[in-house]
Amino acid sequence: MIDFLLHNPVLTALIVLGSLALLFGAILGFAAVRFKVEGDPIVEQLDALLPQTQCGQCGHPGCRPYAEGIANGEAINKCPPGGQNTINAIADLLDIEAPSLDEEHGEEADTKTVAFIREDECIGCTKCIKACPVDAILGAAKQMHTVIAAECTGCDLCVEPCPVDCIDMLPVETTLKDWRWDKPGSSIIATDRNSNATSDDEGQAA
Amino acid sequence: MTELAVILISTILVNNFVLVQFLGLCPFMGVSNKLETAIGMGGATTFVLTLASICSYLVNTYLLEPFALTYLKTISFILVIAVVVQFAKMFIEKTSPLLYRVLGVFLPLITTNCAVLGVALQNTAKARSFFESSLFGFGAALGFSLVLILFSAMRERISVADVPEPFQGAAIGMITAGLMSLAFMGFAGLV
């Protein structure tokens, strides 16, 4: 065997390098499974509770960085799109007292809204396109812009930069297609938590 | 014991990899802006270099030499180094999150550190024994860390000094490195 290999140097080189690579691949594969590190699970859970509007009103560049911020001890009441519902859900998860929304970061909208561009007034400056965190505004320079209503999260960030104030936030009208029953109140959901903590958000329990 | 001291002194001071042999200059210039990162990089490099010189010695002695394949040592050592770095990264991440936070970002950078490959190649070229090879790797890494930390401490001071405009930034760094190299030449003939 050794003799055969020594007479075929090219074949030997291929076999040796190949088996070396295979061995190292196996070691790394084993290490990847054996030393697998789970991501910070609390960040995942917090991220799931945030509304994913990526609006940046909390001061972070998106929902996930804010979730990481909360995990590092930041205040939980900085999310206007999520409103009191989200604050209550996060407080519930972290087992702390639910504070009210911090007005500094914006007010909670009563109803869900979407942006609407009055198209005959639009001058095509693209400023709202740059402001939109979810790329829901369509248009080009000196061309009329419009909002893709299905993508808009109603975060208000495009209203401020518009130089001609042609963006309105219109409430979403409930139609037959998207009408739903209200979610059941927390009082009728079985829970192992203290009922006092969730009694104040009746009808909106997460 | 004397032999041990001789190897360490010769790798750390006399044949310093960065300032005398000019290997591993990229991290030397790249991560020496802050003392903290330099310490992190030094620690990570020490860890990887020692491990990599041990592994490449084993690969060379038990795989390449019996099959007369020593002409493949460069590519094999690159493979070994890449795997050692990746394995060390996973291992540290799992066992010591604190150490990972300090060293973590620097570990992948070491793959391309020429000093690591240089040590492995020199070990085989000079036919060192297993013990000598690993000690040589360790000493080279200590020398690298020493120079990196000294250099970054100097650069921290230089960054607040009033440097003439044409010399600001990388230029003054290069000049400092050159002066340090001159100073290290003074160790020649120590051993």
Question: What does this 3D model show about the protein?
Answer:
- The complex is a heterodimer of chains A (206) and B (191).
- Chain A is mainly α and 206 residues long.
- Chain A folds into 3 domains: 2-34; 41-107, Electron transport complex subunit B, putative Fe-S cluster (3-methyladenine DNA Glycosylase II, Chain A, domain 3), CATH 1.10.15.40; 111-173, Alpha-Beta Plaits (2-Layer Sandwich).
- In chain A, 34% of the residues lie in helices and 7% in strands.
- Chain A is built from 7 helices and 4 strands.
- Chain A has helices spanning 2-7, 9-34, 41-49, 63-71, 83-94, 127-131, 195-198, and strands spanning 113-117, 137-138, 146-147, 167-171.
- In chain A, strands 1-4 form a two-stranded antiparallel sheet.
- In chain A, a hairpin with a 7-residue loop joins strand 2 and strand 3.
- Residues 197-206 of chain A have low confidence and may be disordered.
- Chain B has 191 residues and is an all-alpha fold.
- Chain B has a domain at 32-156.
- Helix content of chain B is 74%, strand content 0%.
- Chain B is built from 9 helices and no strands.
- Chain B has helices spanning 2-14, 25-30, 35-64, 73-95, 97-103, 107-110, 114-125, 130-160, 170-185.
- In chain B, helix 3 runs parallel beside helix 7, helix 4 (73-95) packs across helix 7 (114-125) and helix 7 (114-125) packs antiparallel against helix 8 (130-160).
- The radius of gyration of chain B is 17 Å and the shape is globular.
- Chain A binds chain B through residues 2, 5-6, 9, 12-13, 16-17, 20-21, 24, 27-28, 31-32, 34-37, and chain B through 59, 63-64, 66-69, 72, 75-76, 79-80, 83, 86-87, 90-91, 93-95.
Provide a brief overview of the structure.
The complex is a heterodimer of chains A (206) and B (191). Chain A contains seven helices and four strands.
